[in-house]
Amino acid sequence: MQCCFGIGSCATSVQTSNYVRRMKVLDNWKINDPALAHHFDRSNMVVMIDQRPLVTRSGQSIELVIGSTENICHTLADYGLQASIRNSVLLDALPGEDNEFTPLFGCSLKTLEPPRDSGMPADEPRKRLAGVLGGSLINLRFAMLTMTSELHRNWVAKMQTLAKWSNIYNYCPKCSSSLRMRHSKTGASCSLCDRVYYPTISPVAIVLVHDESSEHCLLVRHSGSMNGVYTSIAGFAETGESLEDAVRREVAEEVGLEVDNVRYMGMSQPWPMPDSSLMTAFVARASMNDKLDIAPDELQHAGWFNKNEVRLAIQCTDADVHLKGMLSNKCEPNVLKYVPPSGAIAHRMITFWANS
Hints:
Blueprint: H1 9-13, H2 18-31, H3 33-39, E1 44-49, E2 52-58, E3 61-64, E4 67-68, H4 69-78, E5 88-95, E6 101-109, H5 124-132, E7 136-137, H6 140-146, H7 150-168, E8 179-181, E9 188-190, E10 196-197, E11 202-210, E12 216-222, E13 233-236, H8 243-255, E14 260-271, E15 277-285, E16 299-306, H9 307-319, H10 324-328, H11 345-354
Parallel strand pairs: 1-6, 11-15
Antiparallel strand pairs: 1-2, 1-4, 2-3, 2-7, 5-6, 8-9, 9-10, 11-12, 11-13, 12-16, 14-15
Helix pairs in contact: 6-7, 9-11
Cofactor: Mg(2+)
GO molecular function, one term: metal ion binding
Enzyme class: hydrolase
């Protein structure tokens, strides 16, 4: 009798899923510089110029422009910009020919503004370059909030994070020797002591607070935010603190309430601004009878809203795909008009609660 546990003939009869194959290929490319370099000229690429992702717009859809690395590099060279494996980051592995995978790189570049006496608007060279590349450039935050595909948003977050980290992380914090950056930009090793460093990720807890009946939720408007836009409470986890403890502390600090029944909502989101963070969503319960005591340096307003009020705000937000109404800032300061756009994890959290 043949054994069907562990390594044996049964193990080889099970076909490996494409996802598992892709992850193994990516894992190899992350650490195997020669293998990744071998594929560079035949890879695909997405571009960010002056921290503005290159995208296409079709109706309400906003997506990244994905092109061949060879063509993009040639076009960039015509504009005096160099894209190579040295200043690109590994984002993903895309399906290729013959059931193989092709690397997807991201390249973040900076342009030079035209001379002041040229009479050319400062953003004109960027617009021309974007047009030649087959798209347009949009603000990084706007891209993260409005892009249609979660996968594309995650690529943008990864590109911004790895490009920024690889540009500033040049020397070993332990011995001050130079670092050898991997082609993938997912790690760097010290040239002297061989210590390996990886990009830093800051954990963030974001929480949807509801009352005992779950018919009302607590939303806040941050200082400096647009009028009428309310969101969930969020904050960085501190050293020696669990994410659940971070939820309790942040709510206490920002609105003066004690919460219980803290639960993970089963969703998270990478966020590249101002630095790389991973936002993890929670739901928690508080009493509406307790007095709100908002932190004035953090918030301008906080309030309890019922599901009908929140649903109306979601409808207004979803109808304003390009944020024109939201950015006009014509709403009354302390009236719920919008929630964060669809690309934000807060939108998913609030929508999930409102429809439950």
